[in-house]
Design goal:
With about 1450 residues, this protein is mainly beta. Strands 89-90-91-1-92 form a 5-stranded mixed sheet. A 5-stranded mixed sheet has the order 18-19-20-21-22. Strands 53-57-56-55-54 form a 5-stranded antiparallel sheet, with no helix packed on it. A hairpin with a 5-residue loop joins strand 28 and strand 29. The protein is globular and about 105 Å long. The protein starts with a strand and ends with a helix.
Length: about 1450
Amino acid sequence: MFSLCKETHPPTGVEHSISCHFFNRTEKSLVVAGANVLRVFRLLPDVDHRKKEKYGENRPPKMKLECLATFTLWGNVVSLSSATLSGSARDALLISFREAKLSLVEYDPDRNDLRTLSLHYFEDDDMRGGWTHMEHRLPDVRVDPESRCAVMLGYGRKLIILPFRKEPSPEDAELLQPSITVDVKPTAQQLANAANANTKSPVLASYSIALKDLDEKMDNIIDVQFLHGYYEPTILILFEPIKTFPGRLAVRKDTCSMVAVSLSLNTRVHPTIWSVSGLPHDCLQAVAVRKPLGGTLILATNSILYLNQSVPPYGVAVNCIADTSTNFLLKTQTSLNLSFDSAQACFIGNDKLVVSLHGGELYVVSLMADSMRSVRGFHFERAAASVLTTCITLYEDNYLFLGSRLGNSLLLRYTKKDEVPSVSVNGHEEDDDVVIVNDKQDDSEPPSKKKKHLDNLGDCMATNVAELKDPEELEVYGKEDKASVQITSYSFEVCDSLLNIGPCGNISIGEPAFLSEEFSTSANPDLELLTTAGHGKNGALCVLQRSVRPQVVTTFELPGVSDMWTVAAPGKTTITLEDGEDGVDAGPMHAFLVLSRTDSSIVLQTGHEINEVDSSGFSTQGPTVYAGNLGNNKYIVQVCQMGVRLLLGVDLLQHIPLDLGSPVVHASCADPYVVLLCSDGQVILLTLKEARQPSMTRLAVSKPGISYRPQVTAICAYRDVSGLFCGAVAFADGEDEVEQIDSEVPAFEIKKEVDDEDELLYGDSDMPIVLQPPAPDPEPQAPKKNTLWWQHYLVERKPTFWLLLVRENGTLEIYSLPDCNLCFLSKHVSTGPRVLVDNLEIAPLATNTSTSNTEVPISIIRELLVAPLGHLGSRPLLMMRLDEELLLYQAFYYAKGHPMPIRFSRMAHDVFTRERKPKSKKKHAADAPAETTEMSVMTTDPVICQLRYFRNIAGYNGVLVCGVSPHWVFLTARGELRTHPMHIDGPIPCFAPFHNVNCSQGFLYFNNKSELRICVLPTHLSYDAPWPCRKVPLRCTAHFVAYHLESKTYCVVTSTSEPSSQIFRFNGEDKELTAEKRNERFPLPSVPRFSLLLFSPVSWEVIPNTKTELDEWEHVTCLKNVRLADEGSHSGLKGFVAIGTNYNYGEDITSRGRILIFDIIEVVPEPGQPLTKNRFKSLYSKEQKGPVTAISHCSGFLVSAVGQKIYIWQMKDNDLVGIAFIDTQVYIHQMFCISSLILVADVYKSISLLRFQEEYRTLSLVSKDFKPAEVYSTEFLVDNSQMGFLISDREKNIVLYMYQPESRDSFGGQRLIRRGDFHLGQHVNSFFRVRCRWQPEYSVERKLPAGSDKRQLSMFATLDGGLGYILPLPEKTYRRLLMLQNVLVNHLQHVAGLNPKAFRTFRNTTKVLGNAARGIVDGELVWQFLHLPVGEKWDVAKKIGTKVDDILDDMIDIERLSAQF
């Protein structure tokens, strides 16, 4: 049995985050990682230019995060750091992977991608030291604060050191200098040589130290950190030589130690300069304290300690447990009751620390120091309650990022409240006084900002300018001794959040509550997914749909229409709705709908009703090529094949007959320009000349000097407001070109060294860059200069106009409008290169003229569109439609480009525009003689555009891709590309946005049956997510969810935790509840209280009066919708809700559980509350002999796992009667049934297959897996008559087993055979099965492969927030895709040098006999074939001996089978 595993929804949790100069030195970026996905964000003011609001230092605009890049890695990120390497214009990332791999990568401005600088692999046997697996000690990476070296912990026993190269050598500098002879074009070879010349690695040879050599007791490393303020890089190691645990504290306590080691990189000598032993046993992490204090903070579960060399240690107990658990001298701080277990900490000032506790509370901890700079007090202030945090990062001034796996990640802005005098400290000296009193001035910019951008010169200045104290500063504030320290209080506000649907603990399929009746008859059922997400106060339910289901307002039948446009007219009121997602107003109302047929046009007036316009200035005699608005929606232009009309409302202002020798076939508009394309390739430019009187306005015709050979096949006029096309961007690369400064930005005198250095690095350029120069440090006497980093983004860009065209030979040309100068030319665009490069500058070498692969056909680009997407149009998206492919490119700033500082990089997407033709048609096409190229390039009929840009449909801007596979393409202010299919109504020939009195912010489209549908987008879902999604907050943990088919409601089990001091004790005969007396500073354990709720998918609220509380101490272990025998129903089976529970009283008292069975009945709803028609009715509730751990149904009987037995029950008269039982192994936690087969998962002992024979009333073991496996979840994999058994395990693998009694390895069927394994890299807690998507009868596409109708899709949800599927494949398809996978492993250049084959290989902690079975194709790797350039696709297909078309057809089949939601 062969299958394919593919993830369709990327993981959304965040586990690591850092702030660094990822793109350039002028702006900071936030890099976040979760599972195997790396995303890069920047901070952007959420400002609308039309609202002229004033912002200043005290009133900054609201910020949000914009995603600029996403990278998928072949490995899970274990640790993430950044380093500043010498001679580099940006920071490099250090990413470590299991078990001991390290990649050094940086952004490549030439390709808009990641470039791998060096790879470090330490997984050899010598490094392992005999260990077979390292679960507990992952490879953490730490970088020296001054970027002199990095260290990585290898297998918990070795310290691997990577020294970085110092300042660049003189010969390197010469290479970077600009060429004197500017007018000679460099050849491609010269450019390549210059790029390769600087081959000196930024990282010197790494070496390792055995930790036992530093200190023979060193073992069980807890944390490793670099310390601040030492001449040599100095590393602190926190470790526990001999372990203990809370139950053994009477014998052994205070087992942790700390050592500071100085790393002399040149001599490789590593003296220990300072050590402390006898630290509390519960130390969790070390946080290095910045200068002037220096030293380190140690966070332990019950205390916080400050340690520094030559200063006595100081510690505070944060709860009363520390009083007894340690002998370390701790001060008691009254009224503190905290626990630092799972806490995350980060400094926001030199002496202020933000700590996020495990419950989500944010505390600001202030370190209070005396005159000797030794800390003599901690001040704790509870500032906010926030998300349960996994990582915390300081980002820019006053912004804090909280990354979370358990909820949405948040961006917080913190501001200082009024300062209050606090604890007095004796003899406070001036240095610290300045830091504390002058907090607002000193901490507003991080040290990196204050380095005056001169560090790169290296040797001419001190390494850290920020820490050189200014003598004038001391004079201003004086040297008085203060009696008390000013404590700053902070307030936090949420600026932005990143959606996270994980961890998906349990997932269920249901039906959406609202579906237009037009779609209710489709062959495929309409389904949605409901998954549990989050934990505790971040608990939620997520409603997910893969495809867009429009809400139909009305439908007309209009046969023969080939294209349509909606246009606005003056006099129509602009109704302004609430601002949408992108902050765009509702826009003008559409007054007319222009429909084009093959021989005529229809014009409809769209008011309260839709009527045909009788007499008007519109031309209706022939087909319309284009209709649109000009002059800020005042005028209407209608382009016909032989003329152009300009209208004001229905009145004709001007008619321009065009006699060009060939008809107009395509037009594109960028107000005030209209560009026409004739069938012979002529390009005509029309410009609107507005007059004072609207009736005198005219269009001026001009013929630009653009040659129309080779044939022009597509054009697009574009109005650019991003500033990218002309180089006026806020984030211009590096600090280059500071000579020309925009008039709105205050100019400063810049030190000459900066200019020299920039010229050295980048060469001079004369492009105007809107860039603010780095200001000198503000002097204390002078008022602070206005140099806020976000002001770049507030400069409104003047729009520029451009004309893009492509020719039949695949060349893209960009001309400036209206003067039509050629500014950019890129060749062979139709082959889909990864980066579109300007070929105007480079003289090509003679060898490169002929393509290597002669038989590769040149595809013709049929359509071209540039869509201004992103925040206020700042992310232009270039879309090109070929006959069978859609190419997407994003524009990115390229500093060396001239005259246009721009390049385009290809974006991966999953939009298939290719149609699967039946085999008969393929043969027919092959036999037909090839048409002449001239005919096939252009016809005389109008081009029907399939890429339709829209503004403000339900608040979103984007593009709808029409055709056989309609897709919505969004790229909102969040910055991530989203493509959502809309296959519910079949192919869509044409589409138009529609904003009207009766249909606000809606759209129109025709389907294949010539039905015009007027629709709106359902707004209860957010479309700015990988799948359209709605997150329903519960504020409590959701454990299980099940859909009840009869009542169309969801049953949800939730729990809330409350602190409790009660405990059950065993008194000889029975248990008794006793309340323990504890100090008020004792952190009490929390006890969950479970409840059962009924949710309605209509409002996504709990149906009133349906909440059923379970007993105290009772935990729900399973919830299922079971179908049991019932005489009253038509099928003989009826759906009930079954729950299994367990009473957790502690280890001294025997576990017991209950089985609860509920029916959901219909009652008379309460007045005004229609949802209250459903209620729970309890049918059965009895205690069992053991804990009920799993529940299912089989042939109308109830199956339950009670203790170590599995029972089969029959339900009679609301009571359960035992039928059969069988003994099992350790702990059964999942059971699934098909027919009479029961698949059983054990927590430690893998899976077993049971069979129930109803006629004999026996339950017997059929087969089982003999090898131990810690199973998380299990499910069946069904392919016609074959059946496999899937499991997901603790090692993040998915394994496929089969029952094959004829196989020799199965011992006559006793043992299940492993037939496939695949390392997913994420834990799977929940599988479910769904039938593959059927093909409608009327479909003209090629029939799906044989047996597809009886094939099932097994889908899974992961704890990192990902979704995916496993699909059984026919052997022929499997073999082809497997060969493709093997070729792509070596053919592609993988991010960070990782190997997909190694990543997907089955992992196991224990050595197992036998090889990996594989047998499962890696869908994500295979799908990368789609995004290869055409030549590479042909090369790869040739290597495996097949055709590109066959591979693409297989992929389309798989996409169509799996497109179920």
